[in-house]
Amino acid sequence: MKTQGQSLKKKVLAAFAILCILFIGIQFYRPEIPNPPVVADFTGPANVKAIFEKSCYDCHSNKTELKWFDKVQPAYTLVAQDVKEGRTGLNFSEWGKLAPGDQKAKLFEILNQVTTGTMPLPNYLALHHSAKLSKEDVAVLQHYIAGLMVEKVEDTAMINARSRQQAAKVNKMTKVPVTVTGVPYVDGYASWDIISTTDRADNNTMRVIYGNAIAIKAIHDNKINPWPDGAVIAKVAWDKIQDKEGNSTTGAFKQVEFMIKDSGKYAGTKGWGWGRFKTLNREPYGKTTDYATECINCHRPVANNDFVFTLPIKQ
Ligand code: HEC
Ligand code: HEC
Predict the structure, then answer these.
(1) 290-312 b/e with 16+ CB inside 10 Å = b?
(2) Quick one: which of 20, 71, 280, 310 has the most CB atoms within 10 Å?
(3) Is this structure's pTM higher than 0.90?
């Protein structure tokens, strides 16, 4: 019995020794994490930048600063991989290379990642406690980014002028069009504030998302999960026309869609009235009430966000 116990001990020791040798051995395997020069660093407000530096720059800039425990293998290989992938999708040291619209889109994405707890990477936070975002940090980011999104986009005037011009060509509506689910067309949306614009290369449309006064106030007060009753969000799509210089302008009006918040009246459709009106004749979309299910299903990925894609700020 005694000899068996000893030989087991020896085996354990030998295995441990092998592990130690392997552990030391892999320390020599060191993929490079170069820090290329910072060419066009992020230039937002100082408090916003400080948050990114504290929590994101290790993986999303050319100023990666590793702690000693990051340099111990096998952690080091994982960190090197994170930095490489992180910089590919978002590099604050090359921020200035992005077109203004792309910067906005990135910030929007950042807000999404941060408010859902996807970023900073949770396994990184386990060791880098100081990178954890406080509630105040998140509020600072929300405030800054929400402010940018509500700001009127440069070509708003052009878009509105075009929209009015087109609207003038249409016969005056004798009565308000209504969908089969009883959702009415909401007149006057073109004079509301713009929440955001999106540009879909896949189907060559330009979209503008407007909010009525209640919706805009809710954004400012950060009370959009759920959105208050009375909030209306409109999404308008035009064909996109690209000129020789690559500038885009709006072509023919395609449709306007509404999400009208009324938690009582529209309780059966997630608290929203869903309406789509096509062409300048505002033809209500949907022969049967099933069409609303189509809207809801496609908006389901943002169910936690009261079914709204735009500005998904979590409380
Ligand atoms: C430990 C490294 C690490 C830290 C710290 C980190 N990220 Fe990331 N991030 C990644 C990696 C890796 C990816 C690539 C996709 C993935 O793995 O999810 C990524 C992807 C992203 C993306 C998507 C980029 C794209 O379009 O591909 C955004 C946005 C983002 N991170 C924002 C942030 C923000 C904001 C912070 C700080 C609050 C942050 N990240 C902190 C590693 C990190
Ligand atoms: C194929 C998927 C899909 C379907 C179907 C769909 N939506 Fe959307 N909707 C989106 C996406 C994605 C956005 C985000 C903005 C963008 O990309 O244009 C959006 C945005 C909106 C917005 C602006 C508010 C927000 O969520 O950002 C409204 C209003 C809207 N949709 C109404 C409707 C209505 C009404 C229907 C049904 C008649 C509908 N949608 C059907 C995908 C869809």
Answers:
(1) ebbeebeeebeeeeebbbbbbbb
(2) 310
(3) no
CA dihedral 117, 122, 127, 129 (to 10 degrees): 0
Nearest residue by C-alpha to atom 2 in ligand 2: 298
Which band of pLDDT confidence, cut at 50, 70 and 90, is reported for residue 57?
Answer: very high
Gyration radius (Cα) of the chain, Å? 27
The preferred substitution site among 204, 205, 235 for testing ligand 2, maximizing ligand atoms within 8 Å of CB, is: 235
The architecture (CATH level 2) of 156-305 comes to: 3-Layer(bba) Sandwich (3.50)
Per-residue pLDDT tens digits for 8-46: 888 888 888 888 887 777 776 777 788 888 889 999 899
Determine which residue's CA is closest to atom 28 belonging to ligand 2: 235
Which of 52, 88, 90 is the pocket-test mutation for ligand 1 (most atoms within 8 Å of CB)?
A: 90
- Closest ligand (CA of 233): 2
